[in-house]
Write a structure and sequence with these properties.
This protein is an all-alpha fold and 220 residues long. 74% of the residues lie in helices and 0% in strands. The longest helix has 32 residues.
Length: 220
Amino acid sequence: MKQISNQKILSEFLGTFLLVLTVVGSGIMGENLSDNLALTLLGNSLATGAILFVIITMFINISGAYFNPAVVISDLINGKLNIKIASLFIFAQIIGGILGCLIANFYFEINIFQWSTNERFAISTFISEILATFGLILTIIIISTKDKDKVALAVALYITAGYWFTSSTSFANPAVTIARMFTDTFTGIHPGSVLYFILAQIIGAIMATFIAKYFINTKK
């Protein structure tokens, strides 16, 4: 049982590491290759969607492929995780995400340790993050109930779309939000905006959890 738990925690660490490495790294690459923000966002969104499909497919039968404290909180509410494993998952996700950001800074030859100056907080982005996370959690819960094998593709497509239909570019993930404080590049977020984003993400996750319950229970 201990070995299984360690495998799950390592999976959450590695998955979140690869996710943030891709998010930040593709953002830096986009900035290096083009001054066109639309092209940079396009490359960033496609890379993020692609890595989400890969890491969810890779780890879904090991840890459940959470890679997101908002998803962990949702399953905690639903009784699918206990508080101990949920806490360990969230810790692993945050550490993995931060390391992914720092490594992306390193191999693109910019300062490894830096703070983002990209202020993102506004009422509009706060509402955007609520809706972005709401849609993501709703997608995960309902589709996993119907067909677990389609979750990876559904999440990948949702987040790819979310980059474009939300004013916040759909962070929808507290661990990724925290990690992105540490890069003053295209995907960075100013530390002063982080708490607002995380609050919005938690609100969105809780709303989606209870609304998804309504759909699932009604069907039964």
